[in-house]
Design brief:
Length: 525
Amino acid sequence: MSRFGELLRFYRDGCADKAFNKRRLSQARLGELLGQHLGLTNGYTAAAVSDWERGKSKINADDRLMLANLIKVLREGGGLQTVMEANTLLLSGNYRPLDEAEHRLVFPDAPAAGADPPPPPASGGEWRLMVMFLGELVFRPAEALRQLMTGANNEPPPEWPRLFLHALGWPFRRWSSEQALAAALWIGTWLFAWWTTFSLLQWPFTSQEQAYVAALFYVGGTLIVPLLVGGLRRTQPEEFWQRQKSVAGWRVRFFTYQGAYVGFQVGYMAVFLAALLGHYFGLRQAPLVVEGLVATLPLLISYAAAREVPFNMWRAFGALRVAEGDIVFLLVFALCGPFWGGFFFRFYPVILTPWAGGLLLLTAIGILAALTTWQRRKGRAVIPAHIWAAMFSIPAILQLALVSQSVFVVVMFTGVMATLILLMAWGRVTLTLTGLLVFLLISGLLLLCFNVDVWMGRGAAVIVGLGWWRWGKRFLWAPLSFWLVILLGVLGAVLIRQGWIAETWAALGVGLLTLGVWWWEKSKR
C-alpha cells in the first residue's frame, strides 16, 4: 500500500455518510459522491477507490479538479478537517499542494494563503496522523491474520502450521528482492561508517601510530561514505524528477552527492563536538550499542541532505544548473575530511585539553555564527572564496608556527597568505576552478622536475611562466602587490642566508613592508 493510499483510507474511515445514518463512508459511496461532485453519471466504482488505496493505480497528477473534489468529499464527510491534512494527503502522492482557487473550492470558509491562520482545532492534524500510524501498526497485522484465518477455513486442518509460518514471514512479506538488497547495502554502509570514522573518537590514543591509523581511517571514511549514500539515493524512479523533462539526470546526481557530502560532514561534526564535550566533563565512553546508534546520525543527515539539496536548488532557481561555484562547494566539503583528519592528527593532544579544545570549539561556533549572520545580511547563500581561504589558512599558519624554528618563515608565510586573502576580498584576484586545478597539477610536475634535475626544473618553470603569461591570466591572476610581497620574502631569505641581517630584523622589516603594500593597494581602490 502506498503512503497516499494509507492516508486516503484513513481519512475515508473517518468520514460519516450522512445519507445512511452517518455510518462509515464505504469505498463505493466515496466513488459515487466523487462522481456527483464532478458531474459524472456513474461516478467511480468501489474497485477504483480500492485500487487507489492499495496503490494499484494512481490519479493523474494533471487532473487537479478530481483531486480537489476528492478532498472536498473527505472534508464534507468529516474525515479530513484542515488544510494541513489536505496538503499532506496530496504531497504523500507527489502531488503539489492546493493552490488559491482549489483552496477556495475545498475550504471556502478558511482564510486564504497569507492570512492569519485560525486557531487549530481540538483534533489537530499532527495528532490525527499519529493516531493513523499507530492504528496501522496495530490493526494491519490483525487484519492480515483475520484474512488468513478466513481463507484457512477452506483448507485441511490443522491451521496452526499456516498461521505459524505466516507470523514468521509477515515482517518480510512486502519486501522485494530489490528492497532486501538496498537494506543490506544500507546496513553495510552504516557498519563501514561506524568502523572508519568513529575510530577518531577512541580517546585517549595509546600511541602516535594508533592516532595515525585512526586519522587515516577517518579520512577514507569521509571520502567514501557520502559516495555510498549518494549512490543509494535513487532518483530515477521518482515521479517528480521524471516530470521535469528539462532536468538532466546527471545534474540531479551531482546535487545529490553535494548534499550527501555536506550532510555527512555536518552530522559527524555534531557527533565529534558532543564527544569532545563529554571528554572534557570526564564522562565515560559510550557503550557499544549507544555508539552504533549515534553512528546512524551522520548517515541520516547525509541522506536527508542528499534528498533535499536537488529539490531546493530546483525550487530556488526553477532549474538545475551546475556552476563553477557548485563544483568548488562540493570539492571543499569533500576535502573537509582529509583536512580535518590531518589537522586532528597533528594537534589532537592540544585539542583534547579543555582550555585549548574549548577555545577551538568556541572559535568554530563563532565562525559558523559569523558566516550565518553574513549570509542573512547579504542575502547570499554562497560563501566567498576569501572566507574559505582564511578558514584554511589559519590552521596552516598555526601548524607552521609550531613546527618551524624560524620566525622569519612564519612571518613571511603569514604575510603572503594575508595579502592573498585581502586581494581576493577586494576583487583584485582572478581565481577560477580550472585555473586552480591546473595550478595544483603544474606545481606537482615542477616539484617532480626539480627532484630529478635542478636545471630541468628551472627550464620547466620558465616554460610554465611563459605559457601562463600567454594563456593562463584569465584563469589565474594576482596583481603586482602580491608578487611584491613574495619578492620581499625571497629578498629577506637571501639577506639572512648571506649573514647580512639578523632573522628577527628581517622578519620585522618584511612585516612592515607588507603592511605598506597593503596600504598602497587599498589607496588605489
